[in-house]
């Protein structure tokens, strides 16, 4: 049933109609069963085998499909499993044009794994340069892979304009929407063909679930991805599906507090003499602030700064923090801080990081939903030590 729900706060609670029709349980059951009884020989029910379909996972998939304005969603064991499934659609030797700034793990998937296993060749292009993107598309280009905001540079790219360029050349347009969440932007409505999520971040929101998602509006593309998912098997477990559904209920509420904290911290950081640059899409000083205002409903919940200091200063600063947790993760209720060059993006060569715009003095903050004053006080005493 598709209720005409307008507001994201309401959608987060009711999208996908996840009340259990059998019992009326407000939260769907966790169905661990790996297989399903057939009523008689040759009589197939809705479910046959849990790799292919599972009621708990299906409830989550209905919910996210609705949040993204799509018709079908597929849940995977992680964001990377979801991304890998998209690339499995491509014939060997295909060409991909990808956003120059991107999550380190995606870069590794394209440039190391798929390059060898599928002879996939990827050109990493600055997607704020539209003519450069169009020029990079070749006859064998099959996918345009975008990320906005980009992890960790927070560059914003014009999804609508880029989707139009992709479609002009018959290229599948994929958007990694992890940093915006479906409440921040809905790429399918801007023309993208596939939305990918790492649900491990804000969707789950509690640093206790790994998960990935693909969402599409085209039924045939949805079926192709479903076949890949079933054949390769990287699906999300029923328990994780439940945790994600539970997390999404409070997504709108959490994002509001994340964003309030981000604004307070970003403005405070801008005043600090040891901070060379503060990047947050909500700040007027962000190079694509106007585009962010047009394209996004929330500015996301990551702040990236460039420190005026050495790696030793980064270490001193990090070790002095009491509230911020030093961690690889993002998107939890607890505030986290990371150093991309030695953490999330350390599988890259220094020249690859330089190419992606990740200098050694870059710090990434993922403010949680604590009180902003406590977060500022924590940073203040840490900055006093460098
Ligand atoms: C974390 C992340 C991923 C990978 O997701 P996992 O769930 O960790 O596999 C992909 N893209 C972006 C932007 C991310 O932040």
Describe the protein in words.
The strands form two sheets. This protein has a seven-stranded mixed β-sheet, sandwiched between helices. The chain has a five-stranded mixed β-sheet with strand order 8-9-12-11-10, with helices on one face. The protein has helices at 8-14, 55-67, 79-87, 104-117, 130-136, 159-168, 181-184, 219-232, 238-249, 251-270, 289-295, 311-319, 350-356, 372-383, and strands spanning 72-76, 95-99, 121-125, 141-147, 172-176, 194-198, 212-216, 275-279, 303-307, 325-326, 336-338, 362-366. It is α/β, with parallel strands linked by helices and 386 residues long. Helix 2 packs parallel to helix 9 (238-249), helix 3 (79-87) packs parallel to helix 4 (104-117) and helix 10 runs parallel beside helix 14. It folds into two domains: 8-249, Type I PLP-dependent aspartate aminotransferase-like (Major domain) (Aspartate Aminotransferase, domain 2); 252-383, Alpha-Beta Complex (Aspartate Aminotransferase, domain 1), CATH 3.90.1150.10. It is built from 14 helices and twelve strands. The protein binds pyridoxal-5'-phosphate. Pyridoxal-5'-phosphate is lined by residues 78-80, 103, 105-106, 147, 151, 176, 178-179, 198, 200-201, 210, 212, 330. Pyridoxal-5'-phosphate binds at residues 78-80, 103, 105-106, 147, 151, 176, 178-179, 198, 200-201, 210, 212, 330.
């Amino acid at each position: 049933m598709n209720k005409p729900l307008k507001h994201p706060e309401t959608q987060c609670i009711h999208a996908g109609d996840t009340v259990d029709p059998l019992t009326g349980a407000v939260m769907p059951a966790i169905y661990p069963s790996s297989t399903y009884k057939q009523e008689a020989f040759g009589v197939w029910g809705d479910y046959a085998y849990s790799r292919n379909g599972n009621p708990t996972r299906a409830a989550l998939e209905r919910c996210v499909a609705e949040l993204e304005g799509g018709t079908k969603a597929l849940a995977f064991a992680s964001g990377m499993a979801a991304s890998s499934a998209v690339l499995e659609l491509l014939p060997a030797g295909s060409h991909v044009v990808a956003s120059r700034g991107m999550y380190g793990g995606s870069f590794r998937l394209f440039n190391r794994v798929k390059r060898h296993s599928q002879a996939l060749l990827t050109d990493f292009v600055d997607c704020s340069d539209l003519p450069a993107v169009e020029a990079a598309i070749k006859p064998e280009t099959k996918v345009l892979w975008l990320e906005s905001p980009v992890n960790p540079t927070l560059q914003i790219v014009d999804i609508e304009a880029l989707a139009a360029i992709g479609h002009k050349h018959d290229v599948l347009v994929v958007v990694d929407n992890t940093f915006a969440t479906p409440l921040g932007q809905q790429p399918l409505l801007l023309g993208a063909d596939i939305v990918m999520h790492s649900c491990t971040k804000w969707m789950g929101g509690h640093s206790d679930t790994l998960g990935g998602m693909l969402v599409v509006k085209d039924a045939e593309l949805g079926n192709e991805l479903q076949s890949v998912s079933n054949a390769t098997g990287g699906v999300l477990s029923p328990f994780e599906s439940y945790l994600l559904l539970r997390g999404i209920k409070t997504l709108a509420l959490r994002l509001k507090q994340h964003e309030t904290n981000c604004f307070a911290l970003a403005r405070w950081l801008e005043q600090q003499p040891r901070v060379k640059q503060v990047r947050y899409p909500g700040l007027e000083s962000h190079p694509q602030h106007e585009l962010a205002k047009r394209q996004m409903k929330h500015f996301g919940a990551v702040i990236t700064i460039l420190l005026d200091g050495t790696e030793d200063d980064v270490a001193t600063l990090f070790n002095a923090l009491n509230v911020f947790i030093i961690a690889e993760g993002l998107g939890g209720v607890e505030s986290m801080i990371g150093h991309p060059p030695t953490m999330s993006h350390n599988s890259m060569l220094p020249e690859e990081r330089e190419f992606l715009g990740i200098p050694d003095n870059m710090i990434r903050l993922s403010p949680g939903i604590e009180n902003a004053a406590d977060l500022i006080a924590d940073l203040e005493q840490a900055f006093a030590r460098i």
